[in-house]
Amino acid sequence: VADLEGRPRAEVEELLRSAVATEDYLEAARLRDYLERVAVDSEAAILYANNEFYEAFQECDPKRMNALWLKEARSCCVHPGLLPVHGSEAIADSWRNILSPRRGMKIECLRPSVTVTGTVGRVVCYERVEDRITLVAINLFESTGSGW
After folding, report:
1. Which domain of life is it from (predicted)?
2. Phi, psi for 46 (deg, rounded to 5)
3. pLDDT digits (tens, 9 = 90+) for 78-112
4. Which residue has the higher pLDDT, 124 or 117?
């Protein structure tokens, strides 16, 4: 397994196809098991990051929220009913404006469903806000050197 760590998923999938094509079923099983373990590990890490997002939201903690966002110009955040916010600095400002005036907020993530494709993870869930409003949310995560 050590020889597979850090390799892109697509590369390992190609090795798996090659092992099956050459009828090296022991190697194919090893590669299949590795891909399954990585997928489970990724899903758990994404759910953890998603949970961190909602905890920062509940605590109205803009610093904690900012720590979760990718520090890139290509980052994008869409708050319900508003135009998309682009760039990590603008996103941090938008969360500061939403969270700073409050001491806490009741928001729950319900029925999260995770999909992982390469270095991108997606969580689709329901958000229940203040026990009154339920929204559908899509949260995207990118795997980086520091996690999801």
Report:
1. Eukaryota
2. -70, -45
3. 999 999 999 999 999 999 999 999 888 999 999 99
4. 124
Rounded Cα distance between 89 and 75, Å, is: 9
Separation of alpha carbons 67 and 85, rounded Å = 17
Structure-token match 């758990």, residue found: 44
Region 25-33: what's the mean pLDDT? 94
Same domain, 90 and 131: no
Picking from 31, 8, 7, the residue whose alpha carbon sits closest to that of residue 19 is: 31
* Domain-located, residue 84: yes
56 and 121: one domain?
Answer: yes
* Rounded to 5°, angle at Cα 137 from 66 and 115: 90
Domain with 37 in it: 1-60+105-147
Residues 91 and 113 in one domain: no
148: number of Cβ within 10 Å: 21
Say yes or no: 42 and 19 in one domain: yes
Residue 119's pLDDT is 87
Residue with tokens 């949260």: 139
At position 139, the amino acid (one-letter code) is: N
Q: How many domains does the chain have?
A: 2
Q: Looking at the predicted structure, is the pLDDT value of residue 68 above 90? A: yes
Do residues 56 and 126 both lie within one domain?
A: yes
